[in-house]
Amino acid sequence: xxxxxxxxxxxxxxxxxxxxxxxxxxxxxxxxxxxxxxxxxxxxxxxxxxxxxxxxxxxxxxxxxxxxxxxxxxxxxxxxxxxxxxxxxxxxxxxxxxxxxxxxxxxxxxxxxxxxxxxxxxxxxxxxxxxxxxxxxxxxxxxxxxxxxxxxxxxxxxxxxxxxxxxxxxxxxxxxxxxxxxxxxxxxxxxxxxxxxxxxxxxxxxxxxxxxxxxxxxxxxxxxxxxxxxxxxxxxxxxxxxxxxxxxxxxxxxxxxxxxxxxxxxxxxxxxxxxxxxxxxxxxxxxxxxxxxxxxxxxxxxxxxxxxxxxxxxxxxxxxxxxxxxxxxxxxxxxxxxxxxxxxxxxxxxxxxxxxxxxxxxxxxxxxxxxxxxxxxxxxxxxxxxxxxxxxxxxxxxxxxxxxxxxxxxxxxxxxxxxxxxxxxxxxxxxxxxxxxxxxxxxxxxxxxxxxxxxxxxxxxxxxxxxxxxxxxxxxxxxxxxxxxxxxxxxxxxxxxxxxxxxxxxxxxxxxxxxxxxxxxxxxxxxxxxxxxxxxxxxxxxxxxx
Length: 546
Prior knowledge:
Blueprint: H1 8-38, H2 45-82, H3 84-119, H4 124-155, H5 160-184, H6 188-208, H7 211-216, H8 225-245, H9 248-262, E1 264-265, E2 284-285, H10 288-323, H11 327-354, H12 356-364, H13 371-385, H14 388-403, H15 408-432, H16 435-458, H17 465-492, H18 499-524, H19 527-532
Helix pairs in contact: 1-5, 1-10, 2-3, 2-4, 2-6, 2-8, 2-9, 2-10, 3-4, 3-8, 4-5, 4-6, 5-6, 8-15, 9-10, 9-15, 9-16, 10-11, 10-13, 10-14, 11-13, 11-14, 11-17, 12-13, 12-18, 13-16, 14-16, 15-16, 17-18
């Protein structure tokens, strides 16, 4: 029988997911090399470097991959449908203005961090963090320009090159951590500065590698500000609320990192916090900020491959449906996206919970990264992983609000989540140390998703609840079978320090878990497997009810 044509969402998701998978694998290798180079708690260098990296990285996600992209893509799509030449002019004008604005932000950031570096001469760990942040500030402008080019390519349904662009960052960082820094100097502080310079170099390359694809998609430079004024105003008008709303996950993890860095006690520090009047003890120990980063990187692996891949691919489709006021199709595609992330995200999260310790030991426990460091990071990863399914679904739901032009809804939810996250952080870190940061983020992830879905339903988006419920039941049952089988197997695999044993304690349970999950799903009903594999039979839509 002839195969049913692949749904555009499935094609875009597959391309984006494959590119993201390559980037994430290289990202794990770069983090492995960084952990071996700088360790977790030794000397406080890892805390300083990873906290400094969060600053341009947060702004990059908010301006480049987040709010600006979300406010720009629907406008470009609508403008291209009306007049392609006008759309390309909008792209050129926006890239120019973005370069000027972010260039000014970089200059101000350099001045600020330079001043702070001078002010903290007696605090070497703090001074190191501000010095590294100053070196990495140009990365903000470069990677935001790269992200804007990627958004333009996404609007033209070109996903391949944008999906591979993050590979450039990971290759540059990996080369610096593995090949360059250890050979240039043995001083961890100087090694951290080499890593920072490699990140800036990667930003330059991320812009350059996308220019041929942009040209091939039809872009021609044409700067006509008056002609672009109307669509540009729409982009700017939507930007500010989106700026905060789309980046809530990044804001919460950024807060986690800052709290972990600011409330950590170095070995020679007093027990009580001096800047709080010596009335409260330090809740965390040095290395907490690095533990937050490394555990985040592991749980963000499925989030980047699954959640963001679906969200990236679904956004142009939702924007097209919203532009035609076709809420029925919007609800269908959104429901399909949610079913996909639930089908993939729940077993991924449970699997990470079961394999938290083996995964961290395999990836990071070498060089300066000790067994005690691995134990700290694994404890955090366990609780972060509990809400992977919610983290994956949230970007998909947020894209629906932006496609509908209702950016103020995620903003309100985001504001509540930031407040809740800070409150839970401060509530949990004294009794649970850094694990409390992960627990807080996990709770906020579930609350945020539930709140957003409830508000979306109130806006009369017809989600396919029967299909969603059927997928949820099948997924929970199949995941339970997978968890029982994987836990039993893992119990029989004795932990040993050899790298081959560490690898087997991850690979064998993962493969066994995937096989068990798929087998259980085939028994329960193969609908989601058939949809993902594009094997739906003619006459049977992936949206049909069971």
